[in-house]
Write a structure and sequence with these properties.
single chain, Type 1 dockerin domain, disordered N terminus, alpha+beta, 8 strands, about 230 residues
Length: about 230
Amino acid sequence: MKKVFCLLVAILIVVTSIFAVSSLDTTRVESKNLYTEEFKKYLNSCGLGLNEDYDRWYMYSEYYYYYSDENNTDIPEWVLAYGSYYGVEPSGCYGVFDEYCLQEVDCSVPNKLGYYIYLPTENEFCPIERAWSMDIDGIEKAFSECLVPKGIARVIGDADKDGKLSILDASQIQLELASLAERNDVAVGGLCVYGEEMKYITDLDKDGEIGILDATAIQLKLARLV
């Protein structure tokens, strides 16, 4: 009986430890909006003329926290956040970030994507366009591990909408062109505020139409010939 009791205690300790580790890891990635006050100050620094009642004029949410393998602290290298302020009519826009397209159709700031990279150690908010241009360490993970899985950004050429580029996307385009599958062209609308202009997510050759050359472009890209 004593051995059984000791075994149960040991199992309980192991299970508790697992949950403790899981909980610790979760606190590093859950959205807790840790830097809301810093974002308020950032808005004011933009010269918006907001008064003490500006709480109702902004929205802010943190999506992703990036920790490098060498980071053993509770402070991330950077945070992906969404923020905007009200008071103007929204206007759709999009940005092309290499193989990703980020489109904002609802932003309350005309012609702004609304996504930021916040650098805690520097207390600085960078529009995601500038952060991408700066080639901040791990910046592509903001897209591959957050914006694409959440359906906020799309992988260019992703015809079957599975979140990645594969030979199946080329096949999907070919089937659509042969009228063997329903056409599912995803239009990109609004003003291009970053990167090259494009009309459709699957328009890889940027000619404004979906054709066999786009399927070929996917095949060449996967073969790393382009």
